[in-house]
Design a protein that fits this description.
It comes from Hevea brasiliensis. InterPro entries: Thioredoxin-like_sf, Thioredoxin_domain. This is Thioredoxin domain-containing protein. The chain is an alpha/beta fold and 77 residues long. The protein has one domain: 3-Layer(aba) Sandwich (Glutaredoxin), CATH 3.40.30.10. It has a three-stranded parallel β-sheet, with helices on both faces. It is flat. The termini are far apart.
Length: 77
């Protein structure tokens, strides 16, 4: 089964999904994760369940380890 949680890997999809949901008046839930954080890893399956149950809500996930370079660069520009 395809995931209902959208994985965000850069600024472009973040901007796209946030704008799209905002324009539609859709609620947005963002889960920030890191592979070393067992609590955030444990929440992955729960987020999937919620996304299947509440299909009118946009669920996003952002892995901080994967985008930390981008965050650093964006913050200092």
């Amino acid at each position: 089964m395809k995931s209902k949680v959208v994985k965000i890997e850069s600024e472009e999809p973040w901007d796209f999904f946030i704008a799209q949901a905002t324009n539609k008046g859709c609620t947005i839930v963002v889960q920030f994760t890191a592979c070393w954080c067992m609590a955030s890893v444990a929440m992955n399956s729960f987020s999937e369940e919620l996304a299947l149950t509440y299909q009118d809500i946009l669920f996003l996930t952002v892995d901080l380890d994967e985008i930390k370079i981008y965050i650093f660069v964006a913050y200092y520009h």
